[in-house]
């Protein structure tokens, strides 16, 4: 699971993914696009029906509306839609996850922007603590502190997310596309290891172990059942 | 919104995507660039260390600059779409100009307006190139043959 599991669209990436796209009826497609886009639009059938009913209702009084809908509408059965959301592995949550580039972009973007926001808040607090004679100096203090702390935290978090999402995809690909808790824990470990490499071997190992423990705790907290089944202890014992 | 661009994700979320994509582009590109530059500027025997130090110090900064540009651009683009209820190249050009101006606003009005013009021109170029490529790839319509004269 990627970090943003609770609000990303795939909670079951480890399970098999639909190989071929399935065809669905136009009613379903309409319903699906309405639910995914949250936009209300009049379906072509309904629109035609409304126009026709208001215009030549006397003529149509004799016609059966259901029959009309089945045979005369421009989108009568026979046209089948490709369901785009079927290819996205699961569809709850806002952030799509259709492959490594989605994971990378959304993961990094979320981390970067939230880091920027948190860092800005940190800078704001810091700027408020500084003594200031008048508002102009206070404003300058705020701006200075915020532009120092915001980009620092944002860039660091962004780079961590960049590492994590890349290794998440790489480890997942190396494990034949299995993207479960083990993948995220090992990706987190590699990320910590790599992020702290310049401060020495000891610090690097410490960071790697710490981050993988944190990720394991997070995974346990977020989806307890899947994580337990991912770490199938009996099978590990058998292979050992 | 029927007939809208279906290759991108729906609007509020695409901001995250754009910011992340731009950050990755900047961080990776800036990392490679500063790695090479730091290696070349370091004394013999310290080349690798110097290269890594330069990459760590400057790569994320470029990533951040790119990321904030992409994020703000996408935000303004979404806002433009929402306000104008239209999707055309002017959205992108206007949001490029606003982004450029906003990011340079601490330098004063002069700097900000120069930067805004630069952003607008850049986005106009990008949009123009995109339109040109799509025209080229569609191919010119063959001219229609004239109708044969009527027998009478």
Automatic annotation (TrEMBL), chain A:
Molecular-function GO term, any one: protein transmembrane transporter activity
A single cellular component GO annotation: TIM23 mitochondrial import inner membrane translocase complex
Superkingdom of the source species: Eukaryota
Lineage start: Eukaryota, Fungi, Fungi incertae sedis, Zoopagomycota, Kickxellomycotina
Keyword field: Membrane, Transmembrane, Transmembrane helix
Organism this protein belongs to: Smittium megazygosporum
Extent of Basic and acidic residues compositional bias: 24-34
Membrane-crossing segments per the record: 104-125, 152-171
Polar residues composition bias: residue spans: 1-23
Region (Disordered): 1-41
GO biological process terms held by the UniProt record: protein import into mitochondrial matrix
Mode of membrane association: Multi-pass membrane protein
Protein's name in the database: Mitochondrial import inner membrane translocase subunit TIM23
UniProt KW Transmembrane keyword: yes
Pfam families attached to this UniProt entry: Tim17
Location of this chain's protein in the cell: Membrane
From TrEMBL, chain B:
Keywords, ordered alphabetically: Membrane, Mitochondrion, Mitochondrion inner membrane, Protein transport, Translocation, Transmembrane, Transmembrane helix, Transport
Subcellular location: Mitochondrion inner membrane
Domain of life: Eukaryota
Keyword Membrane on entry: yes
Record's bilayer topology term: Multi-pass membrane protein
Similarity field: Belongs to the Tim17/Tim22/Tim23 family.
Listed name of the protein: Mitochondrial import inner membrane translocase subunit TIM17
Upper lineage: Eukaryota, Fungi, Fungi incertae sedis, Zoopagomycota, Kickxellomycotina
